[in-house]
Amino acid sequence: MDRNFLTAEELVAALRAGEVTSVELTDEAIARIERDDKAINAICVPDFDRARAAARRADQARARGEDGPLLGVPMTVKESYDVAGLPTTWGMPRYRDFVPAEDAVQVSRLRAAGAVVLGKTNVPLGLQDLQTFNEIYGTTNNPWDHERTPGGSSGGSAAALAAGFGALSIGSDLAGSLRTPAHFCGVYAHKPTLGLVANRGMVPPTTPALPVDLDLAVVGPMARTARDLTLLLDVMAGPDPLTLGVAHDLRLPPARHQRLGDFRVLVLDEHPLIPTGSAVRAGVNRVADALADGGARVERHSPLLPDLAEAGTLYTQLLFSGSVARFPIEAYEQLRTRAAGLSADDQSLDAARLRGMVLSHRDWIEADNRRELHRHGWRQLFAEFDAVVCPITPTPAFPHDHNPDLLERRIDIDGVECPFFDQLVWAGLATMPGLPATAVPAGRTPEGLPVGVQLIGPMFEDRTPLRLAELLEQRIGGFQAPR
């Protein structure tokens, strides 16, 4: 039996029953990484000596009668999290020697839960790509097809899970960085409600690890099953002990339903700003059919759905307004000149990106006000529905594209070329209003590539899409190891 592909839940049960030790599991995981990761390049910063020491401590703790939700379970951490004694570079060569002195709050929570950290997983330059490559650590390949990307920016974590390098991982999501790699690699991920999971210590190199409220970005769990996502989210969730945690305790509401037949689901497979590829549409339809067969109420249209075109444009502006905040003033002034030359009639996403890069504070406040209207629209929609099923990106994993000018890249959608960043609108559907979204496998293409969909849920009701993911896994299956 290959224990490297057992779920975290199964590993915890085996450890509690005394059927295996953490040292054995850790050694098996390390052996698999050393055997297979040369071709995948998911683990960019191994930490095997300290992992073995942590595994020994976990076994000793269990022998003393101690327990923990992840006690003795081997897992990985995205490179962008601070881990004391290991480099945090975000793939940027000038920071290759930066080593933080303290763990990120989430790494501390993993250790407190008993997890064994095998090492850190690869990321794109500055976390700003749907792929995973950089000059320090090289390119991470999709375990299903090494000529294709595993996604980004949590691509190393998704590839590690698909390859059996640890039972769990943690990543982050601003533009689908949890969900896209999960979709491309056939695993599970959960983008939590904005603000649900403390992010301190998931910061660019040399930046003070302070508790800050991010505008769009979240940190969250990745796994090979829906139940493991919930297990890991329960470890991660909760306010920062330096801020809201001083006065607040977290109590997530239970899932709205336990039976599939009780769910009310809106299914979307078309977006006004970008076409949906046939493989992804087939995945959405496969999930829709499974929901209907299970007795769920499935609808394809609702007048309560916020305007998707406006949502995509608004998300694009908010996303890119943050992406250039630290640009040198000379570069910023060049962008202002280009934006001023846009025609007022140009409502393309390219134009929205450029306008977003130079939003004035006044314009940003107006955009934020429009976001609040969208949030209220989602509240009204979730009074009638429990979840929304839709694509994560329009295509399965695409071939590596290392063009350094990301704005010049194109994505091929069934023969139609679209600007590379236009594919972010599906991820932005949940990100812009701060909603939780669970990425789940939805089958494979005829060529064998994984296809996933996302289940968007009501704000702070993260257990609802997670429960729906678990029920879908029972009906259509979930993760399968690459052959």
From TrEMBL:
Transmembrane segments: none annotated. Pfam families: Amidase (PF01425). Keywords: Hydrolase. It comes from the Bacteria. It is an enzyme of class 3 (hydrolase). Residues 24-464 form the Amidase domain. GO terms for cellular component: endomembrane system. GO terms for molecular function: amidase activity. Its EC number is 3.5.1.4. The keyword Cell division does not apply. PANTHER family: FATTY-ACID AMIDE HYDROLASE (PTHR43372), FATTY-ACID AMIDE HYDROLASE 2 (PTHR43372:SF4). This is Amidase. It comes from Streptomyces bungoensis. The lineage of its organism: Bacteria, Bacillati, Actinomycetota, Actinomycetes, Kitasatosporales.
